[in-house]
Amino acid sequence: MKPYHHLGKEERFYIWQALREGKKQKQVAEAFGRHPSTVCREIKRNTYAQCHFYTYHWAMQIVKHRQHHANRQKYRKLNAEIAPLITQLVRQYLSPEQVSGYLKKHHAIHLSHETTYRFIYRDATRKAQLKPFLRQGGNHRRKRYGSGARVSCIPNRVSITQRPQEVEKKERLGDWECDMVIGQNRTSVLVTVVDRASLYRLLPSLEPVRSGGQSGHYPLAAPLQRAGADLDL
User: Is 193 inside a domain boundary?
Assistant: First the structure.
């Protein structure tokens, strides 16, 4: 069974033009691979009652109004009984996704996690109370328009695509892969160092080396030298 997709703006515009040219609903449906009942339902639902015929512009206005009304109804699911329950679950450090799953499993309440986010951020007092219980410190998520790719700022950085073919074979010792977790305020770093061939690994904790008031760097050469000596053994 094929998944159903709502009609798009182009399809609604085509329906309008085709009906103006006198085409039948079945011909319109066949033109863009839809079932005739889909076209029939579209015309009945999105025809302005006082016009008595289907137009593209009125159809889009009716669809937008229906979607806006549906979104308002979704938020109204947060009634006086559900709101305290959501507050209690968030205070137990459950994420909005987990809140949604808990309500569905234990209370048969189907509530989107986005609704929980709106519930938290819509009221300033509630936001201040529940913000500390969110996983990411409560920073409101937003799209990063025009910010560009968030890439590493390592000087003279070499892309992983330039790695030699010998490294991909995982046959020789000494080809290391490193990753790091930076602590709060960048005061410490936990580094994972893994040899690709032997899977020998280190977990050194590094302290930043600061000079001239700069933010500093994390010396990784010493742990790699010690690891190399261990592999030689």
Answer: yes
Q: Which of 39, 56, 75 is the last residue of a domain?
A: 75
Number of C-alpha atoms within 13 angstroms, CB side, residue 221?
A: 3
Instruction: From 69, 45, 40, select the one nearest 58 (Cα to Cα).
Output: 45
pTM of the model: 0.34
The angle that helices 36-45 and 9-20 make with each other, rounded to 10 degrees, is: 90
- Helix or strand or coil: residue 192? strand
pLDDT tens per residue, range 146-197 = 555 455 566 677 777 787 888 888 888 888 887 877 777 767 777 788 888 8
Domain shared by 17 and 70, yes or no: yes
Locus of tokens 């590493």: 152
Q: Are residues 50 and 33 in the same domain?
A: yes
169, 188, 206, 223 from 202: Cα distances, Å: 21, 16, 12, 8
Rounded Cα gap, residues 167 and 162, in angstroms: 11
How many domains does the chain fold into? 3
CB contact at 8 A, 212 and 203: no
Higher pLDDT, 10 or 215: 10
Q: Which residues span the domain enclosing 210?
A: 167-232
Reported residue count of the chain is 233
Residue-wise pLDDT for 28-62, tens only, equals 888 888 888 988 988 888 888 777 788 888 888 88
Read off the pLDDT of residues 71-94 as tens digits, 9 standing for 90 and up: 655 555 677 788 899 999 999 999
